[in-house]
Design a protein that fits this description.
CATH class of the largest domain: Alpha Beta
CATH topology of the largest domain: Alpha-Beta Plaits
């Protein structure tokens, strides 16, 4: 609630203003009054109102001197001067003290409402900007590791803007890349029959465990490595091997790959495959090594230690079947990004372009079509889980498995994917993310528990770490009501229940549900229920 204080040496004006201001409409509250500048100064210091409405000519300390002192003390609230005198010199002084408005008495109620609305909008905009700046500063500090991780992933995939591909734009921790060689190890978790039963949240935990295993083992062998998760069940490990003659770096990478697969199987009971891409001398070629690593897996290139599935890229082989290659890493990243942003047309175009890479579709077996469907669904569901959208709320695992099993031809897969993309993007537009729904669930539960208290949107915004304006939009989108309307409805419904019990008087019920002003409570009650509280009792 916006806090408003009134200072005027005429009691009639004070009382008239308090009655005339539409407090509920403005989401504002009265916090204090004074009849001279000296008392007004002390009252403002004590209550710190957002808006001060003040006269100029008052005893002990006039309005302009009071404002000057407030500004010297750092008071940044909005000030409206309401004076019975039109004086250019006073208006000029008021401008110097950053006064929001200078109005002559008498003032009509509509004009007062317009002025207060304007000032409150300015306050809301300033607060939102201040909160956003604070949130941005906090998030930059809090999410710096995640931003860094995203940069590494983009560098590995090849989605960095070309302007970043020089030494000057390398982040400080990665400046050494310009003087190193680079090789990528692609890691893929296999969705066998047992693993297909796991939920997206299960996979999320597995991926976290895999990252710990990989990084711990890799740092025992190579002093500098970077690990980045891709979407679905794939990840990359960027290694910077030494290239001196006689160096065993490549053998060390192969041995590391075998140990990683053994540990993943031993600790997580998951089967994995690993591919090793070619070694590059420039960091801008890292994406090439990434594609080579996964191509080695898809094409089953040189297998280092059967039955362990560790493959080393051998270059293009003419006899390779086109359908053996699964997805380009860049394609999966772009599809995930489009789905996260609910860009339906872009996601469908990416799928169309990918299906076009499968040629004339001849010789593509139903098993391969179903494998593609399963992998693409894994990419979509996991990337949305990262963004806070749980697809299990729209489709059950059994339903998806059954539908994928029925896909026999690539065009059936394309139609199925289009249908799912449409449903997902459409549902997110009106339902909001699961994280937002969790926030609103918390808010509604809190209102039902604390409706008798002075519950405010500002208070709840502090609890959920979302700015007040943004939280207001989220609440309205998901519930269809403003926060204040919902709170009022809960309070009036509780009041109705208490009145029906006939154990309490109207003023007692009003206080019990959070209203100290009984006439105001009665007005709201009639507005919400169609009858006065006393009528209901009768």
């Amino acid at each position: 609630m916006w806090k408003i204080a009134i200072i005027d040496d005429e009691r009639q004006v004070l009382q008239g203003m308090k009655r005339a201001i539409p407090w509920e409409d403005l989401e504002a509250e009265w916090v204090g009054e004074a009849m001279n500048g000296a008392d007004g100064l002390n009252m403002i210091r004590a209550t710190q109102p957002d808006i001060v409405i003040t006269d100029i000519y008052m005893p002990l300390l006039n309005g302009l001197d009071m404002i000057e002192q407030l500004r010297k003390e750092g008071y940044n609230g909005k000030i409206i001067i309401l004076s019975g005198y039109s004086d250019f010199e006073h208006a000029r002084q008021a401008l110097r003290y950053n006064v929001s408005d200078y109005v002559s008495k008498p003032i009509s109620v509509p004009t007062l409402k317009v002025i207060l609305n304007k000032v409150i909008q300015e306050l809301a905009a300033e607060e939102e900007k201040r909160i956003k700046e604070g949130e941005l500063s906090h998030k930059l500090m809090l999410y710096e590791p995640f931003i860094e991780k995203e940069w590494v992933r983009s560098a590995a995939i090849g989605t960095l803007d070309s302007s970043y591909r020089n030494r000057e734009h390398l982040p400080q921790p990665y400046r050494y890349w310009s003087d190193s060689s680079h090789a990528v190890m692609g890691i893929e978790l296999i969705r066998d029959e047992r693993a297909r039963t796991y939920s997206v949240s299960d996979w999320n935990l597995f991926r976290f465990a895999v990252s710990n295993i990989v990084c711990e083992l890799a740092r025992r062998v190579f002093p500098f490595v970077e690990y980045a998760e891709l979407h679905s069940t794939r990840a990359v490990l960027i290694i910077h091997p030494e290239l001196e003659p006689g160096n065993r770096a490549h053998e060390a990478m192969e041995e590391l790959g075998i140990r990683i697969m053994e540990n993943i199987k031993s600790y997580l009971k998951l089967v994995s495959r690993i591919g090793i891409g070619g070694t590059k001398t420039s960091w801008t070629q890292i994406p090439d090594s990434t594609e080579e690593a996964f191509r080695a897996i898809d094409m089953r290139h040189k297998c280092v230690s059967p039955p362990q599935e560790l493959y080393v890229y051998q270059g293009e082989v003419k006899s390779e079947r086109k359908q053996a290659a699964l997805f380009q890493v860049k394609f999966t990243y772009e599809l995930a990004s489009a789905m996260k942003a609910a860009q339906e047309a872009e996601a469908k175009q990416l799928v169309t372009d990918y299906m076009g890479t499968l040629g004339d579709w001849e010789g593509i077996t139903p098993d391969y079509v179903q494998m593609l469907g399963s992998e693409l669904w894994g990419i979509i569901s996991y990337c949305l889980y990262e963004a806070g959208y749980v697809l299990e709320e729209l489709f059950t695992n059994d339903q998806i498995a059954k539908e994928i099993k029925s896909l026999l031809h690539p065009d059936e897969l394309q139609r199925w994917l289009f249908e799912k993309i449409t449903v997902i993007c459409g549902s997110r537009q009106w339902k909001g993310s699961s994280k937002h729904r969790q926030v609103v669930d918390f808010m509604t539960h809190y209102i039902h528990e604390h409706y008798a208290e002075d519950v405010t949107l500002a208070e709840l915004s502090d609890k959920v770490f979302i700015s007040r304006n943004h939280l207001s939009i989220i609440f309205k989108n998901i519930t269809g009501e403003t926060f204040n309307t919902y709170l009022t409805r809960v309070r009036i419904e509780k009041a109705r229940e208490l009145l029906m019990e006939r154990h309490m008087l109207v003023y007692e019920v009003a206080e019990r549900v959070g209203y100290k002003n009984v006439p105001y409570f009665s007005t709201l009650f009639k507005k919400m229920t169609g009858m006065n509280p006393t009528d209901l009792i009768k």
